[in-house]
Amino acid sequence: MGYGRTRLTAILLIASLSLAAGDQPVKVAPGDKCPVCGMFVAKYPDFVAQVIFKDGSYAVFDGVKDMMKYYFNFPKYNPAKTASDISRIWVTDYYALELIDGVEAFYVIGSNVYGPMGHELIPFKDEAGAQEFLKDHQGKSQVRFNRITPEIVAGLD
């Protein structure tokens, strides 16, 4: 009986680790292209954004702006998916240059810092970083992920 319980525990642990691995950011390959603009994402590591889906598939972007265009228009960019298929969203913190949770991030809009596609939503892990950047780079406003709208994104083009 102990052997069966140990085996079941091991199976459950492996399954949970497999599921958790699907939530981790992916390593961008040299050939990965942004599905919105077609640029090679690996050329812009300081601006990488990622959408990881529950089925393990993913999309990588050369900036948050293109990621949000994709997010707001699945029928155009990935008709087989919807927002409910997303497991995690990752964005690159501007100061730390590390991938952070895109849903929890703080974004600065309208600064004098440009991404690969021009005006950009600049992400930060914490509000203090966003506020410092806002002041230092003439940002217009700060917004959280759930407050980003298609109109805000369109205004960056």
Task: Walk me through the structure.
By secondary structure, the protein is α+β, with helices and mostly antiparallel strands. Helices cover 31% and strands 22% of the residues. The model is unreliable at 3-21 (pLDDT under 50). The strands form 3 sheets. It has a 4-stranded antiparallel sheet with strand order 2-1-3-4. A 3-stranded antiparallel sheet has the order 8-5-9, with helices on one face. The chain has one domain.
SSE layout and pairing:
Blueprint: H1 2-21, E1 49-53, E2 58-61, H2 64-72, H3 74-77, E3 86-92, E4 99-101, E5 106-109, E6 114-115, E7 118-119, E8 122-124, H4 127-136, E9 141-144, H5 150-154
Structural class: alpha+beta
Q: Domain count, please report it.
A: 1
Number of extended strands: 9
Mean pLDDT: 88
Tell the overall outline: globular
Q: Could you give the distance between the termini?
A: 64 Å
The residue ranges in which pLDDT falls below 50 over 5 or more consecutive positions are: 3-21
Kindly state the percentage of residues in helix. Answer: 25-40%
Radius of gyration: 18 Å
Q: Compute the number of helices.
A: 5
Largest sheet: 4 strands, antiparallel
**Order of adjacent strands in the largest pleated sheet:** 2-1-3-4
Instruction: Write down the secondary-structure element order.
Output: HEEHHEEEEEEHEH
| Portion in beta strands | 15-25%
